[in-house]
Write a structure and sequence with these properties.
single chain
Length: 269
């Protein structure tokens, strides 16, 4: 993993590397750090790529935040970073988990959704730091998160209601028999449509903002346009992306909780 300096690479190439999943890491313009190849099974390439590395870094940051930097003393009110983290934890637990899963299930599943929220949030924020890359702008990454959600939906529904009870979720009572032949397949399509919506929503929002920022930077550097409108545009979009990073982590966690809640408590639909 010895860094290599590329004299031919310009700032535009570096901007592209920030968005594209590659077998190397470009933390700075002209600096190329190749990532080690690991394993290939048939046609499946399991080598470490840039976005895999970002997932590992994001997981490490999440662990460090709560295992080391989070300092709660029961004898006094939390302050600083601990106060911020605790505020977000209580918000996710009370306004998402308990709100859409009920008191009992919400408290039990709060750690799962808290991991979801903070991991996605950290990955989103890492994408705004130049030396890192935007893993959540990769549709494969967001599809992986959505797959976890749909797995929880199916497993939770089967465990809570049993196999037949799970199937009955897609068959609302009180309808003529012939209607079920039309309605039930449509209801089951929700198991495909819902994770697809989660996948595309997070991926598209994170990718779009980075493309707009890259476009402004390319105009400024490529055409030497240093006017206030272009510089202001970069600052405005960057600030907007900072807000979007929090909003998208919230929305993904919220929708995942709603979808799982619909499986655990179909009577509340």
């Amino acid at each position: 993993m010895t860094p290599q300096i590329s004299e031919s690479e310009d700032i535009g190439d570096w901007i592209v590397h920030h968005l594209v999943n590659r077998p190397s890491w470009h933390p700075l313009p002209g600096v190329d750090i190749p990532l080690p190849e690991t394993l290939r099974i048939g046609t499946i390439d399991l080598s470490i790529t840039l976005h895999v590395l970002m997932l590992w870094v994001g997981a490490l940051i999440t662990f460090l935040l709560f295992a080391i930097l989070y300092r709660k003393k029961t004898s006094q009110a939390p302050h600083g970073l601990t106060n911020l983290l605790e505020t977000l934890v209580l918000f996710v637990r009370d306004q998402i988990c308990i709100e859409y899963l009920g008191e009992e299930d919400g408290r039990k599943l709060a750690p799962f959704f808290l991991n979801f929220f903070f991991f996605i949030l950290i990955l989103n924020l890492m994408g705004l730091i130049p030396i890192f890359a935007s893993a959540t702008a990769n549709i494969n990454v967001t599809a992986g998160f959505a797959l976890i959600t749909v797995t929880m939906m199916i497993a939770g529904g089967v465990i809570r209601h049993g196999p037949w009870g799970f199937l009955k979720i897609f068959m609302p009572p009180g309808l003529p028999i012939f209607v079920y032949f039309i309605l039930t397949p449509i209801e089951m399509l929700g198991l495909i449509i819902k994770p697809m919506a989660l996948t595309i929503r997070l991926f598209a929002n994170m990718l779009a903002g980075h493309i707009v920022i890259a476009a402004f930077i390319s105009l400024i550097i490529g055409f030497k346009i240093w006017g206030l409108p272009f510089l202001g545009g970069v600052v405005f979009v960057y600030a907007l992306e900072l807000l979007v990073a929090f909003i998208q982590a919230y929305i993904f966690t919220l929708l995942s909780a709603m979808f799982l809640g619909s499986m655990l408590h179909p009577e509340h639909e």
